[in-house]
Amino acid sequence: MKTNGLGLAGALAKRFINNKITPLIIAAAIIAGLMATMALPREEEPQIVVPMVDIMVGYPGASAKDVETRVVKPLEKLLWEVKGVEYIYSTSMPGQAMFIVRFLVNQDEEDSLVKIYHKLNSHPDALPQGATPPLVKMRSIYDVPILAMTLWSDRYSPMELKRIANQVLADPIKQVRDVSEVTVIGGQQRQIRVDLDPVKVAGYSLSPGAIVQQLQGANAQLDAGTLATDNTAIAVKTGAFLTSSDDVQRLVVGNFSGHPVYLRDIAAVTDGAEDPAQYVAFGVGPHGAHNGIDTQAHRPGSEYNAVTISVAKHKGANAINVSHKVLAKVEELEQSHLPDGVQVTVTRNYGDTATEKSNELLLHMLLAIVSVVILIAIALGMRESLVVGLAVPVTLALTMLVFYLFQYTLNRVTLFALVFSIGILVDDAIVIVENIARHYRLPENRGKSPLEVAIKAVDEVGNPTILATFAVIASIMPMAFVRGLMGPYMAPPR
């Protein structure tokens, strides 16, 4: 395309080279790019959407072989009919079957879950009689915790630590914005255990099943209606929940020879912790002081009772902001509600690691730009290097703005792509700047206006440079069509 004897590149150079709005565009681009860089969510890896669904089906009393034959195989045939399913992993266990259904990459998560529900609910006859209805639960990359805090103490038992974690920290943390799930790992729940004596049970002509029914019936509270009197309605309730081991021991479970049989007569009742299903311990290492641990009171090598609170974030939320909000909330609760003797140590902070790695890559990108500017200053001159040193950051700043507008995140892939693009940007800038510098030195251009010389130089190599850039883009473009799990890494990453 020619405009007054100039090509596209020359016409653009002529329009902007002496335009008063050009410095404003450059300043606005840099400011917008800096603001976008600060506002962009930062992740270690791009958030790849791979919908996964867990399905649990109970089949009480059945062997693993029966579960496989009567539950797993019929449901597998149904699940393979769901559009978008890539893999199905099934496990048969005595009395239970578990399925993990994985969909194709970038399938819509909610749509995938609806498909599974619709398929299972429309074929209830696929399950044998006696099997429980399928329990369906969605899994995604966002279920991975971004923050883990360990509560540890030398004064409190695992049961007490779990109670403190649930009542003091977990519930308030759930109210923090963009927190999707809070899980307490380790510790033990309170449990009142009843150990029946078989000899005494048989001696009183009782059965374990009848005793269980008595316990279930006694541990209930029901509404019996309301009593209205003097313009006042009083709610009437019958029964009461069992709250202590004494309540359980005094429970009447039968009658023998005209006398009541109490549970304490035929069983040992203990109020304590349940059998542990998970173990969490906290050990102090030689560098514990760097994490705020008093190594004088807690010697390196010592081990303490502990529970861990893990926190996951909502999709699209900034991991750094969420972790900062949660830690601020925990610090506030630690000062006002946490008992003395309970320590809180951050054992994983995805926000800090994401910040550290993204800042490191941003630093490397900055060092690459500075290195290129110094190299051009040595080869071509200081004035030419300043032109390149201005053009590359402006382009990268606009790229950051595009990332923000399209809701991308700063992660290893996006930052590596930016570092990779510096080579292309510098190549183009060097070709243009070197040609301008060459034209300034030509004898026939002496006495001519510097603007005229610069426009002519840009027009001479600008169009081929643009075509060369499009050729590079065309050579890389096929990577965006890679399918499977590598597809999101090759496509524009989010």
What can you see in these coordinates?
With 494 residues, this protein is α+β, with helices and mostly antiparallel strands. Helix content is 47%, strand content 21%. The chain is built from 15 helices and 15 strands. It has helices at 8-16, 21-39, 64-79, 109-121, 158-174, 198-203, 208-218, 245-249, 263-266, 319-336, 350-379, 382-405, 412-441, 450-476, 487-490; strands at 52-58, 85-93, 96-103, 135-139, 147-153, 179-185, 190-196, 220-229, 232-240, 252-256, 259-262, 267-273, 281-283, 303-313, 343-349. The strands form 5 sheets. Strands 5, 6, 13, 14 and 15 form a 5-stranded antiparallel beta sheet that branches. The chain has a 4-stranded antiparallel beta sheet with strand order 2-3-1-4, with helices on one face. Helix 1 (8-16) crosses helix 14 (450-476) and helix 2 (21-39) crosses helix 12 (382-405). It is elongated, with a radius of gyration of 35 Å. It starts with 7 loop residues before the first helix and ends with a helix.
